[in-house]
Amino acid sequence: MYSPASSAMTVVLKRNHARPVLQRHPWVFSGAIERIEGQVADGDLVEVRDAGHNWLARGFLNRQSQIAVRLLTWRQDEAVDHAFWRERLERAAAARGLLAGSRATTAYRLVHAESDFLPGLIVDRYGEWLVVQFLTLGIERRKEEIVDLLAGTVDGVRGIYERSDVEVRSKEGLGQYTGRVWGEEPPELVEVLENGLRFLVDVRQGHKTGFYLDQRENRARLPAFCDGAEVLDVFAYTGGFGVYAAGGKAAQVTLVESSAPALELARRNLVVNGFERCGAEYEEGDAFSVLRGYRAQGRRFDAAVLDPPKFAHSQREVERAARAYKDVNLLALQLLRPGGVLFTSSCSEAVSADLFQKIVFGAAVDAGREAQIVGYLAQGADHPVALTFPEGAYLKGLLCRVV
Ligand code: SAH
Question: For a tag site, which of 78, 93, 273, 302 has the least CB within 10 Å?
Fold first, then answer.
């Protein structure tokens, strides 16, 4: 915790490296650091000063990470104490105003890390359960305090479950952990509502914290294109888009997914909504080969959703990822009837919205299909992007209509 004595722990930046900090970017890369003054341990608070020793900001140090400091405040008189965490958490909760009051949606992201001015902290709400991820050493050290504050400040919470089983923690020198951290143990499947639709969520073993909450607003746009349609939901996971398609009175929904347990949960999600008779088809397998098979059979659809996993985990993987995005978009475009729509997205930070559009353009050219963009897709409002942190904009997509 911040105390006057800790002001001796100082990270001094190299000459001409203060600009991003002055612009309130929340990261200081190790390469920007000239020296570290004082006895400071990783995970401790440090004062960040420019080469002329002028105070700039305060944050958590971790020498094991390339992101050596995660900045928390740019106000010298703002101590990083209990009141600080409480205020930040309350601010994040207040920003969810409409969602928090919604009867139709009970699952949403409550804290979106850097973009909610809480570096390294993810908190997702699934009805009466919170699921947390601690992604950095600094925030990991405050786990108990954060959990207590969440339990004390968020209304109607029965239990808090941790899902810190994510690869990025290794970059911080942290291992993986999952388990109950406060209150009751959540049930095997938590039932939530999203825009009035029911979903069973496996918060212990599901992907991320159990559900792809970030696609909520994009999923909501799908039903408008589904009345009487044959809909293809590729990379279906637990049927997020597929359930919306069935809700939009699709004549047939085909879900393609490589994970058998995810596909089984997708089936249950269609059933709990009473959509089991919508002509659902479950195809377990690799999307690329399944779509090639459909092409060979001459199958056609009126709407297709592509929501692949992150193909590029870093800048180095962008080229290979671009080829994969192009291949799968090309296949989907070829499977659409004239007038059909493609919901296509990418959750790779390293693939910009601009690049993604170029990839889809290339796919359309090679598919021999003409298409128009009729909408832009992005992560929902509960996954904000701080203007000071453009890296936070990871989910992008296009809604295209094939001519
Ligand atoms: N659209 C979903 C989220 C999709 S996440 C929703 O709205 O909830 C991406 C999914 O793609 C994961 O479930 C993953 O298991 C699946 N997947 C990954 N690689 C795949 C492949 N090659 N073929 C088919 N599915 C794949």
Answer: 78
